[in-house]
Amino acid sequence: MENDAGTKLQRLLEVVYKYRSEQKAKVDSSGGKLKLGDLTSVNLTKVDGGVQVNVLPDEIVACFDIRVIPSEVEGFEDVLKQWMTYAGAGVKYSFEIYTFNKNTTPITDDDPHWHVFSSTLKSEGCRYETEIFSGATDSRFLRMAGYKSIGFSPMNNSPVLLHCDDEYLDEKVFLRGVQIYEKLIPNLANIPEGPKTP
């Protein structure tokens, strides 16, 4: 059969995995400058279709976890439409969870929140790197509502074990994190208010 659901899925996967390869090539050729959160990621997470082994399915549903970076939010739905067109007639998409959001939190010293946050870390002797965390965190809801949000976990020299069945944190690392928060919280809570916007 031509143009059946399986063929359309194959074409869709072809274009999706080509895109993934292009993103990976950017990371690989960046000399360590780009991280996962600097690029849009697409992962096939679920495929469902058919009623039994000897019958071609009328429809196949493929689910993708797509993490779009803020600078690509506006144009990414056009990319999705191009993928659907390439896959074939009748192929469509919908969103189970839609959180395309281009709001970002400023990380420059002229922003009072960032200035206090980064100054406090420096005064505590903390070295840090800024990056977009591609995992879904609750901060996305704050940003969508227009609030500044910074994800921060003082867990230095610790393996990344998020959602693992043996997730743990060394006691000394935990207690040092408490000390850092004891400085951060009052400093952030006491930022002078700026001028009111009329």
Question: What attributes characterize this protein structure?
Answer:
elongated, mainly alpha, Peptidase M20 dimerisation domain-containing protein
Strand arrangement across the biggest beta sheet: 1-2
What is the count of helical runs? 5
The shape, in one word, is elongated
The count of β-strands is 2
End-to-end separation: 65 Å
Give the integer mean of the pLDDT values: 89
Structural class: mainly alpha
Helix content, binned percent: 25-40%
Number of domains: 2
Task: Calculate Rg over CA atoms.
Answer: 22 Å
Instruction: Indicate the proportion of strand residues.
Output: 5-15%
Protein name: Peptidase M20 dimerisation domain-containing protein
